[in-house]
Amino acid sequence: MTYQDKTDTTEAQAVAAPVLELEGITVAYPRYGESDHVALDAVDLKIRRGEIVGLVGETGAGKTLLTRTVMGAIPGGGEHTSGAMRYNGTPFTDLPDDKSPVRPAKDIALIVSNPRRELNPVLTVGQQIVNVIRHHLGLSEKEARARAVDMLRAVAIPDPESRMDAWPHELSGGMAQRVVIAIALSCDPGLVISDDATSALDVTVQLQVLNLMKEMVAGSETAALIITRDIAITAHYCDRVVILYKGEVVEEAPRDAFFDRPHHPYSINLLAAFAHSPALREAWWDVPPLADGTRPACRFADRCARRQPRCVSEAPALRDCGAGRRVRCHYPVEAGT
Amino acid sequence: MQILRYILKRLLFVIPQMLGILFISFFLIKLIPGDPAVLMLGPNATADAVAKLRAEMGLDLPVFQQFMIYLGNVLQGDLGMSWQSARPVLSDLMTRFPATLELVTLSLLLAVVIGLGLGIASAMRPRGAVRKAANYYGLLSGAIPDFWLALVFIFVFYTLLGWAPAPLGRYSIMLIPPQTITGSVLVDSLITGRFDVFMSALSHLALPVLTLGLVNAGPILKATQSSMDRALGSDFIAYARMNGLPRRMIRRQALRAALPNIITIISVLYSFTIGAAVLVEIVFGWGGAGQYAVAGVLNSDLNPVLGFVIFSAVLSLIVYLIVDLLYFALDPRTRG
Description:
Chain A is α/β, with parallel strands linked by helices. Chain A is built from 14 helices and twelve strands. In chain B, a hairpin with a 4-residue loop joins β1 and β2. The two termini of chain B are 13 Å apart. Chain B has a two-stranded antiparallel ribbon with strand order 1-2. Chains A and B meet through α5 of A and α10 and α11 of B.
């Protein structure tokens, strides 16, 4: 069976299927003489058409690894051991492969952070956009160039015609970030993933860039996954929030419900870090350490203010608690507690 | 404009560089024991005759004064006489240096074709069979001496199979030499329409070029492989992949990023092989410049040695200037 057949049979379901569906994504790094280090553990994620989902987690939670797994570029010898990925119902495994039914940039586009290292230093900005457009949309050089200029204008780069001939090293960080966004949006992808794309920017530029992304998603059929360390961003720009902790989804909820009443102690932890109340911070951050050598079953137990003996012995499952919410905790903070 | 200024600046630096090279090599050569006057006059010469010749040749003067005299002559285009050939060194080198250049240039072209091709192919498929073969080849080419390989080729292709001509010079001694225009037998015979000489020269070039090409392909292969590996592992190539760019475009971008390293290795090899080809030149009776210089060293014939140093120094400086200009063209960041 060829890839083409698969696409045809799923065409009817595609309308109903989520834009991106991740099912039990597990990525492990083999270790010499030890059990594998599981960097992502059975991560589920669904993104529907027109939806903006925020994925929040601290450094090392596996946010970037998740995007790289989707993009088929797992760094440093990690292995995608199990799980399925579907785009509009079409399963895919290796996006960069020329034969993949789902194409990067055209279907799923990634906005990278640190774009000055990601742009090719010896090609002009224009050439890099034109390459992507020509390859995926099959336009002529002239049409592709015109589209590239339009894209640069759309991401509010001043004087786009002359910027086409600029070299990446001549751009400021904010400019380079916009170029990367222009590349990501240039082929009208069905899903845009922003991997911490704004964290390196000035706050004002960050705002502009995020507003721009939101506008562009709203103006089309695109869905977006915004990955960030900054939970405040999700409050402003996302429809749904997913919290990742040490490679596991610990909470998932619609935005308003989440900020109104977060269920998982880690979510409260994150919010408390931004709160103006020192009392709140102390209550959630001052946690007595575990006894030396204890390996708690719940990955958050060592930092949890609500820790019980059960948390050390039994790993909590991610369970549904209605209204589109899921939480991975034995003792979630629910109404009345 | 900027590039012209750069070239001028580089050419200005050539003067002190050349002076330094000449100075050092002159004194190093003077350190070699051996008296040309004794060698020239033979074992039966009287002490008086030797002293007289030494005075004639200026060998009795202090070394620094000898150097100044030599420098003065060089500036007037006089590289002195070789007592072995009894001809001016300049005219000797004008016929011998092109022979070496022709050999080394063609050999390195072959080495680049092999090294670049295998290097790129093996970097693009890290687990492929080509990679394994290329790794063995890199190891072998580093371990096999070129003169030994040359002898094996002569044994197989001349003695056993009879495909190659006798390893004696640049073309068959039965042919009348073509008029010298550029010094390259291939080019000169083509210009003058001497196709018999052209074909003969080609067949005489085959084995030495194959020898030097196969040996020198090793370093080029290794440099290509490792810098392609690094380029393919870089962030911008990962990004290009995540943008779904096709394989051949990824390969081109990676090669472009790897090119400065590869060019460096090729240029170093080129300058180095001009002298290092001497063993292969001897095996094939090539009559090249390296052979000439080595004979000079062995016979205390200093002028050919110094002349060879000057010729190869100028050539190296030209090669490195070209390399710098290539960097300039390849990397927009160096253009400032």
